[in-house]
Specification:
This protein is mainly α. The chain contains 26 helices and no strands. Helix 7 (about 105-120) runs antiparallel to helix 8 and helix 18 (about 285-300) runs parallel beside helix 24. It comes from Ramlibacter pinisoli.
């Protein structure tokens, strides 16, 4: 098979592929070929975003209860659900898999990692999945869970380094190689290496056609450079592959951001209303995207009409359990945007209570989520000085709430808008210039620099 990467890029990957791993360490678990094939198909659903991996895992466990891979997949998916409502299901799944736990050494490690999560030992669970990856570089299930944890709980450096460490053990002939490249592309984008992220992401898609995760990684590469027109072209070009995937709503969100950067507010609103529907049945990821897009529109002075009320209603109907501070922060956006101080106060109380339940999550909540939410409340009250002060003091910690740079950029935009509205000329100039340096092609950033100059000129004229 021809290597999908150019020679120059191939040399840029960490290490070089050393060929297939020994047969006893391949990514296909021991078991019947039927069970193994079904496991690989379900795993591909998880990696590419096509199909229902949980339904496939449930059916696999039911049909092959002694097959360890199906249990490991189900445990991992329930861990990645990362909500209180999934804990009872995880407990049942672990009980159902106790017999296979002792039959397979790697399954035992997957069991222990998921059990740590059930015990709310966040660090222990993620470290356990990471240790599996370190010892079994071909275990893309453990790698996916570990990278998910890195993203959700602010381990940005590991998004790249964890995948980089396994790549030398892979080659293009191995099943799942395109999935690993897709994860690596995302890590590169998050660490600011947008050029290589685009190249590796395109290669991942060429290696595994339909890989919506790879399409998503390339979209991030364009976002990180402010290349909105290229991002729109990319998502249109690949639309047939991602619009039917589990990444669809989130990639519609990315498309809306690209249009916003170009000043096409109408298209962004059209995507919000037609594609990112924040109805009562919407999942948390959809509500996050809806809240984020609405807040960005509000920062631009766009009339969002009654849309905030719908999103706030949907958040109110969901339990906010503190397991995902990133989600809780976006719920606060909706409560502030909808002018619901009671809901905002209740969420602050819930966050303080959740911070006492686990040490690791408590740190993220106290150091990032609570200060950010307090700043958002001040912004909603029109206390832009107070909002700017709080966001500025905690701006280097906001990523601990979780989420990608593209998602966390919302807080940086809010900080800059707070500085602009409170007439802080020096801070506005510094923040807007920083944005242009990081995303030199962004039209929105150029407009923010112009606004910052206007603040300075107004102060001089006063």
């Amino acid at each position: 098979m021809t290597h999908p990467l150019s020679p120059s890029l191939q040399q840029g990957l960490p290490g070089r592929a050393i060929g297939r791993l020994p047969s006893g360490a391949t990514s296909r678990p021991a078991g019947t070929s039927s069970a193994g094939d079904r496991f690989q198909a379900a795993l591909a659903m998880l990696h590419t975003g096509h199909g229902d991996a949980m339904a496939a895992a449930d059916a696999l466990v039911q049909d092959h209860p002694s097959f360890a891979g199906g249990h490991c997949l189900r445990w991992a998916l329930l861990v990645m659900a990362a909500r209180d409502g999934a804990m009872a299901d995880l407990a049942r799944a672990l009980r159902a898999g106790r017999t296979v736990r002792n039959a397979d050494a790697r399954a035992r490690r997957h069991f222990d990692a998921a059990a740590a999560w059930l015990a709310r030992d966040l660090r222990g669970a993620l470290d356990a999945y990471g240790a599996i990856v370190a010892d079994h570089p071909d275990d893309t299930l453990a790698l996916r869970v570990a990278q998910f944890g890195d993203l959700q709980w602010g381990r940005t450096e590991s998004l790249r380094s964890r995948v980089a460490a396994v790549l030398p053990h892979w080659n293009p002939d191995m099943p799942g190689y395109g999935h690993v490249l897709g994860m690596y592309a995302f890590g590169l984008a998050e660490m600011g290496d947008a050029v290589r992220a685009e190249q590796v992401g395109r290669s991942a898609l060429a290696c595994t056609p339909g890989n919506a995760a790879a399409i998503h990684a390339v979209a991030h590469a364009f976002e990180m450079q402010g290349r909105a027109a290229d991002g729109i072209a990319w998502l249109k070009q690949t639309a047939a592959q991602w619009t039917v995937s589990s990444y669809a709503i989130h990639l519609w969100w990315h498309l809306a951001l690209f249009h916003l950067d170009l000043g096409d507010v109408g298209m962004a609103l059209s995507i919000l209303d037609g594609r990112i529907r924040a109805n009562p049945d919407a999942d948390a990821a959809t509500l996050v995207d809806a809240s984020s897009l609405l807040w960005r529109l509000q920062l631009l002075g766009i009339d969002t009409a009654g849309r905030w009320q719908t999103v706030a209603d949907a958040w109110t109907a969901r339990p906010l359990d503190g397991l995902r501070p990133f989600n809780d922060t976006h719920a606060m956006l909706a409560f502030v945007g909808a002018h619901r101080p009671g809901s905002a106060a209740t969420l602050m109380t819930q966050l303080r209570a959740s911070a006492t339940r686990t040490r690791d999550l408590g740190r993220a909540v106290y150091q990032a989520a609570l200060p950010v939410c307090a700043a958002l409340i001040r912004f909603g009250r029109g206390d832009y000085n107070g909002a700017a002060d709080r966001l500025l003091r905690h701006r280097r910690l906001t990523e601990r709430c979780g989420g990608s740079h593209a998602q966390c950029d919302l807080l940086h935009l809010t900080l800059l808008e707070s500085a602009l509205r409170s007439g802080q000329a020096d801070l506005s100039r510094e923040l807007s210039r920083e944005r242009v340096h990081l995303r030199p092609h962004s039209r929105l950033n150029a407009q923010l620099v112009t606004r910052a100059r206007g603040v300075a000129q107004s102060l001089l004229a006063a």
